[in-house]
Amino acid sequence: MTVEERKPSSHEVEDFSFPGRRDQLRGANHWLECKRKADGIDKNLWRIHDNLYDLSAFASRHPGGRRWIEVTKGTDITEAFEVSKKYLMIRD
Questions:
Q1: Domains, in order of start, for the chain
Q2: pLDDT tens digits, 57-90
Q3: Is the dihedral of CA 30, 36, 11, 76 positive or negative?
Q4: Are 74 and 39 in contact (CB under 8 A)?
């Protein structure tokens, strides 16, 4: 895939279509739905560093619990992945 064909990750998209004011935000589920639209990822995959992964089988073993994996399905989780990786390195 060339640079021109690559879909931009969520942090590169200028118009997220996220609610701009606090009163427009209707909760976490609404925010996640806006993020899914902005990320433009298949609803059954997760993006980490511009690569797509099916984490369904990993969900039951995820240290943060199955629910976090299920809720973030269809989004770019690069930042959360990097933060957790750094936390695990510090903790060990």
A1: 10-91 (3.10.120)
A2: 999 998 888 998 898 899 899 998 898 776 666 6
A3: positive
A4: yes
